[in-house]
Amino acid sequence: MGTAREHIQCELEAIFRRVFDDDELVSEATTATNGAVVRQSVPPGSVVMGNPAKVVARVQDMLRFWEAEMLALPWAHLIAVREGAFDPATEPELQRLRQKYFFESSTKP
Questions:
Q1: Do the beta carbons of residue 26 and residue 53 sit within 8 Å?
Q2: Which range of residues forms the domain containing residue 26?
Q3: Are 38 and 26 in contact (CB under 8 A)?
Q4: Is residue 41 located within the same domain as residue 6?
Q5: Strand pairing of 31-32 and 46-49?
């Protein structure tokens, strides 16, 4: 079980992570979106996208935004206490809250 920040970091890496084996243009802790064409050096901790690639955000800013967004969800307290990625004890309540939020709520974002 990890913190909300660790879960968000894993999601960010799973979505955006690109591997540049011999490419010195992209520094450590920089994230390039799929299809980004990186033609010059990129500052550490940046998120780049586009063709040509442009810095659109900082990784830490995106993590803070997604963490705040996640913590505002009605089921955030259950995610914080569950055991692993799937916890049979909390799953029925998670499903109920998610269904209500996405399909029954008129105040969705």
A1: no
A2: 1-72
A3: yes
A4: yes
A5: parallel
- pLDDT tens per residue across span 46-94: 888 888 888 888 888 888 898 899 889 999 999 888 888 888 989 999 9
31: three-class secondary structure by DSSP = strand
Length of the chain in residues, anyone?
109
pLDDT recorded at residue 106: 63
Residues 16 and 29 in one domain: yes
Same domain, 63 and 10: yes
For residue 104, give both structure tokens: 């029954």
Instruction: List the beta bridge partners of residue 31.
Output: 47
47 in the same domain as 6:
yes
Q: By 3-state DSSP, what share of the chain in percent is helix, strand and coil, each rounded to 5?
A: 40, 10, 45
Whether 3 and 49 map to the same domain: the answer is yes
- pTM (2 d.p.): 0.54
Are the C-beta atoms of 45 and 51 separated by less than 8 Å? no
